[in-house]
Amino acid sequence: MENKTENNKMTDEERLELAAKLDKELDEFINSLPKKKYEDGWPEDRWEEEMEKHPFFMTKTPEPGAELHPLYEGLQKLKYDPEENEPEDLATSYKEDGNFNFKYKNYRLAILSYTEGIKAKCGNPDIEATLYNNRSAAHYFLGDYRSSLKDCEFALKMKPTHEKALSRAAQCCYECKKFDLAVEYCDKVLDIQKTHKSIIDLRRKCIQSLKLKERNDRKKNQEEKKKMSEEETFFEEILRCGVTIEGGLGGLSLEKLEPCFPQLAAHRVHFDENKHLVWPVVFLYPEYKIMDYIQEFNETQTFEEQLLQVFECSPEWDREKKYSPDSLNIYFENPKKKLGTVKLCDTLGMVLALKDYVVKGGTPSFILLVRNSPAENRFLENY
Amino acid sequence: MDWKPRHEERSGTLPQPSQETVKNLKELLKFLQLGARLDLKALALESLLAMTGSEDGIKSVLCVEEILVSLVGLLEDNSEPIAKDSAACLINLSADIHGPTYLLNLSKNYCPPLQSSPDTIVKECLKHIFNKESNIADECCMILSNLSRDEHSVGLMFDLLKETQYGFDDIINIFTKVDYNTRGAKLNYLGPWLSNMTQDQRVREYILDPEKCVIQRLLPYTEYKESIVRRGGIIGTLRNCCFEVLSNQWLLSEEVDILPRLLLPLAGNEEFDDEDNDKLPLELQYLPEDKMREPDPDIRKMLIEAITQLCTEKQNRKYIRDKNAYVILRELHTWEKDAAVLTACENLVDILIRTEDEIGCDNLKEVDIPEDIAEKFQKLDV
């Protein structure tokens, strides 16, 4: 060995000589090349632009859809092509991208990256849990608590004790007002870390909201029950006055007394201060196909009194001035589709107490025709 | 008005049974070991179980330490009926007023042949209670509960507990875990056990440790319909803890919020007007028609006593007044039939309806009561 090295050893002189010779050869080689201007490089006036395009030096990420520098494309392929990468590397790359975007608060971009990472289906529960958990965080910061919660659930499927996912799940449930579930998640976090301050506070908030919700439900329930029993008594009293109400036998409900004309909607039958019923009433004038809506017709009032009010001044449509209380006949339709008559001196209460008067749609109605007029004759004939 | 956590007087030693009885009992010993023939073991246990059915029998058995040690050892028997029977014997023995002293003080001198010396009865029971697949976990809870009835035994048990690997944290964990035992044991008797243990201040301090979340996990059980044993045990525990005046304010604070838990079982379905409702804690507002009161008078009494304890200091009395506890007690009083509960209720209402000017002191326990009056009170309470 030693001999060999000694044999190969060059003297300084020899070395210098060799160097000079090589230099000379290189110069000759260069000089022998065909003389041509260097054109492959970046033009001096546009070098900044070119530099920006180069993936190593670019300062901005390319816009989606923009033409990509071939080098960029190549790098992208190296990093993201499923054929070049193992799913696990791919998932990790996307995760890092997502984290980068997340850091700069580009939550939507981060979500896209994490989603790609999830699509890689790397099968490593740690990475997958992280991808879901991080995507959940991005959703959370965008205020999309439902999606955030869903991702937490996925992350927890991979890693049931993922503390961050558990905490965020609790937060999301709180935001979505699922307080029961929020408390469950809080308890799971507290199982891992007993003194987690913000979770203890959150749990308390949830319990408080839950209590309030339960209390409000109970209150609503009680109010509804009270209303129902009030309605029942009211209904019973109406029936006691002898009024027959359509459908009144099958279950008592004030809905059946709700006026079906919008003009009378706010005037459901009620008691006045003397415990007299006040009804909304409709007068029909078949001659002109017109109706009058009487908002408050006290059961103690007679028809005469009511009609005097209605015809105090002659209505516009009564061109012939024929309509006045004492010129009218008052009819009502009974359940057998026959007509009943009402006398002017009858009170509303008396009429409603008749066996064959049935209140329909919460609103008693009467047909008014001018006595012995052609219209009346026509009406009676057709009936 | 100075109540103390409930305890019974400690028992003395028992008279030695006749030589004949001792001889007969010792005859049984050779069958009461893990390796004995199953049929003989079963027969021997049966006769022991019959003996422990009577008070005299119990007294004789308690005096033969070797039998007691053997019974503790047989808890680990592979045969379920054997383990069950020995547990049943120990339940009977521990239920006797003298039982705890003898069973908690077993010496290590005797060891049943061909087996290692069993652990203390406390540790053996806990082993079964912690074993998810044990068939005698509930029986063991009963033994522990029986063994901890008087203050002296509680002290002994506390020390024996410290020797085991099981801490209070672990016990609370399995106690509050639903269906911990897979063989259907409910561990409800840990409730009365815990209640008994809280006669000891060290246990009360543990439960009232603000750094730990113990009492908060027990509170939901004040309305636990499934078991009166568990419910009563936990309410007893709460009541005993309310005697720690220094913790009263913490118990009432948002962190624990004990008051609604104590009041809710006392509330019925009475309707209050909006003003009264709004003053009550949220949990007690607008209760539904089907709301039932705690059916057990002893438990109702404990609940009232707990609230009464919380009224010791002025600021807490004020808080309880502000929370409209009075209306709940007023309705309870009109509904209540049990004389003892009525008295307890009246005692509490007396405090609540008086103004602080009338009471005139911060801490009710610091009121000096002249001896003659105290005596009169005692007679009245009895």
UniProtKB/TrEMBL annotation, chain A:
Taxonomic path: Eukaryota, Metazoa, Ecdysozoa, Arthropoda, Hexapoda
InterPro entries according to UniProt: Csn1/TTC4_wheel, TPR-like_helical_dom_sf, TPR_rpt
Protein name, as recorded: Cns1/TTC4 wheel domain-containing protein
Residue span, Cns1/TTC4 wheel domain: 272-381
Keyword Lipoprotein set for record: no
Keywords: Repeat, TPR repeat
Family label: Belongs to the TTC4 family.
Pfam families: Wheel (PF18972)
TrEMBL record, chain B:
UniProt domain Protein HGH1 N-terminal: residue ranges: 129-301
InterPro entries: ARM-like, ARM-type_fold, Hgh1, Protein_HGH1_C, Protein_HGH1_N
Pfam family for this entry, one: DUF384
Gene3D superfamilies per record: Leucine-rich Repeat Variant (1.25.10.10)
Location of the Protein HGH1 C-terminal domain: 306-359
Matches recorded under PANTHER family: PROTEIN HGH1 HOMOLOG
Family, per entry: Belongs to the HGH1 family.
Protein name in UniProt: Protein HGH1 homolog
Organism of provenance: Cryptolaemus montrouzieri
Source taxonomy: Eukaryota, Metazoa, Ecdysozoa, Arthropoda, Hexapoda
